[in-house]
Write a structure and sequence with these properties.
Glutaredoxin; Immunoglobulin-like; single chain; five-stranded mixed sheet; 35% helix; alpha+beta; disordered N terminus
Length: 364
């Protein structure tokens, strides 16, 4: 016969995770008055999150859209969550095609007050709170500060950071903060080995954390991404206009498939270099295919970017990034270099790296 006390202990992780906590975010911003800000709880893609915003006037269902209007220098959002989530604020500058973002903070429920200045130069939100999760996040950042650029947040040596994270998670297996930190590191993972190190660290969390929506979605996506590795065949894509990867690769020594979108600053900054490389290799059995993940409402911006940069290689539109999402391409720009059989030979090469590779293959 099972003890009721032992049964209660076994259920505690489920009960704790399932408890809904209400949060209210009250913000002030003189700088962005009468403009729209993104108040992001959790991360993209949204199915990693386990929270919901409260209904707003005109909503028939809880609205995941983080955009809020700043009126009289004030804005607000409210909702519920089950466990700590990161919070950041961003502003999409259509003219500059940039989206400056604040530092991350962790909320666990309750009232949250923040102030937003020019996010290009002031990343701090001056919050009125320091939740236990947020204090842990500050300690964690200090723990791995030796391998991270503390100004930009860039991780020049992701394997070194993941070795530190391995020891941290082993000592703190119930840490949702550590889990979110792994999620945020995906944008820094440029190689398959980087992704394998992230996936290995997900296995170290407690059973309670592994039952979270965030852990399950993140681990599943990492496993899916690792099916698209060097040596594997690249899949066909349903894009506009119609494209046959197999037909293109069969008639070229190499084919570069580049994922981008018109409001992606790094994509546009790199485009002139790709244009020069394409000019040099297009008559040497090398094909370029551009796949934009622009939204339907940005179709005009997509065409304008192609014309402005002068991308004179074939361009295709994956509306709303449906196909990119299907094969788990979520960092932009991303690219895959395929051989004549459609097999991935390299991933995420720079223009210079492609030139060097093709130069070394010139006599083969």
């Amino acid at each position: 016969m099972h003890s009721p006390f032992l049964l209660l202990l076994a259920l505690l992780p489920f009960l704790a995770q399932g408890q809904q906590k209400t949060f209210t975010i009250s913000g002030r911003s003189d700088f962005y008055n009468h403009r729209k800000l993104g108040v992001m709880v959790g991360v993209y893609p949204v199915y990693y999150n386990d929270f919901s915003y409260a209904l707003r006037p005109g909503d028939s269902l809880p609205n995941p859209n983080p955009t809020v209007e700043v009126v009289d220098a004030r804005f607000a959002r409210a909702g519920t969550l089950r466990y700590p989530h990161p919070l950041c604020v961003f502003y999409f500058d259509a003219e500059k095609k940039s989206a400056p973002v604040s530092y991350y903070y962790f909320i666990e429920g309750g009232p949250v007050q923040i102030e937003v200045d020019d996010l290009e130069t002031h990343k701090a939100l001056r919050p009125n709170f320091r939740s236990a999760a947020d204090r842990e996040y500050r300690r964690l950042r200090k723990f791995y500060s030796s391998v991270v650029d503390t100004v930009t947040g860039a991780v020049p040596d992701l394997p070194a950071k993941q070795r530190l994270m391995k020891s941290y998670i082993a000592a703190h297996p119930d840490s949702y903060v550590a889990l979110w930190d792994l999620v945020l590191d995906v944008s820094q993972a440029r190689t398959d080995d980087d992704k394998r190190s992230l996936l290995a660290n997900t296995a170290l969390f407690s059973a309670a954390v592994k039952r979270s929506n965030t852990w399950r979605a993140f681990a599943r996506d990492l496993e899916k991404e690792l099916t698209l590795v060097v040596g594997k065949a690249f899949p066909e894509l349903l894009v506009q206009p119609a494209l046959s990867i197999a037909t293109t690769t069969a008639t070229h020594r190499y084919t570069l498939v580049e994922f981008w979108y018109s409001h992606c600053r790094p994509c546009l900054e790199q485009a002139p270099a790709w244009k020069e490389v394409y000019r040099q290799v297009k008559d040497k059995g090398v094909a370029f295919l551009g796949i934009s993940v622009d939204k339907e409402e940005h179709r005009g911006d997509w065409r304008k970017a192609i014309e402005t940069v002068g991308m004179d290689w074939p361009q295709f539109l994956d509306v709303n990034g449906v196909e990119a999402d299907r094969i788990n391409v979520r960092v932009f720009p991303s690219n895959f270099l395929l051989d004549e059989k459609g097999v991935i030979r390299k991933k995420d090469v720079t223009p210079q790296e492609l030139q060097d590779f093709l130069g070394g293959k010139a006599g083969q």
